[in-house]
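User: My advisor asked me to double-check a structure prediction for DUF2785 domain-containing protein before group meeting. I don't want to rely on an old file, so could you generate it fresh from this sequence?
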Amino acid sequence: MLIKKLEEKNYSDSEWLLKEMLLNIGNVNSYIRDKLIYNAFIGMITKDYLTNDQLKNLFNQLLSNQYLLYGIGFKNSDSVYKRSFSALVLGLLINKDKEQQLLEKSQISFVLDRACFYLVNEQDRRGFTEEKGWAHSIAHCADLLDEIITHPLFEQSMYEKVVEALIFCVNSPFVYEDDEIERLSTPSAALINRYGISQEFIDKIESLINHVLSKKTYSHLDTRIISNIRNYLRAMYFKVDLEEHKQL
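Assistant: Sure, here is a fresh prediction for DUF2785 domain-containing protein from the sequence you gave:
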């Protein structure tokens, strides 16, 4: 019944649909998860099928340990799909709130804390999985961070927390193959576009580069990190004009 309603884009019984969609948000069937449920969330959120109370309740549920942080710390587990797509839908809700203004400053701060915790503690960094489609945990959480940073209630005091999480991901020996570095560069550029580039941000980038350059020989892991850093800086360069943004 759920699949039929979603294929027909019949969103009239929104309360029942939300319950069933949440139960299946991390469904391992990529057609159900990506094509039906996620697209239904897009339609229901952006086209005002949900009441303000439903939007708030959905936001709170997705932030719980049963969704955004469900099973975090495991590798190669199906739990990644639930975490990753919870992050995507949270991004939709925060984007919608830029016009609705239902959320409070404390809620934006809380979702930021959760997103940064997610990036630092996510162990399953797979992008596309052959049998089950997109896991894309790092990319989806980076998208969520971008929505948070561009929300009116995001404050400059939250700046360094975001930088810590982003640099942690870049400074990883994991081989990102599915646009993750590009996606991590987007919230980084959003920070600079909104508040300029801080001295702390510059120091962290310089520390990454100097650590690599100081080595006389490079291991395979070092080579991966160098590639991540190079691609991250290149992607940011084309998203911001640093001359227009003074240091904090």
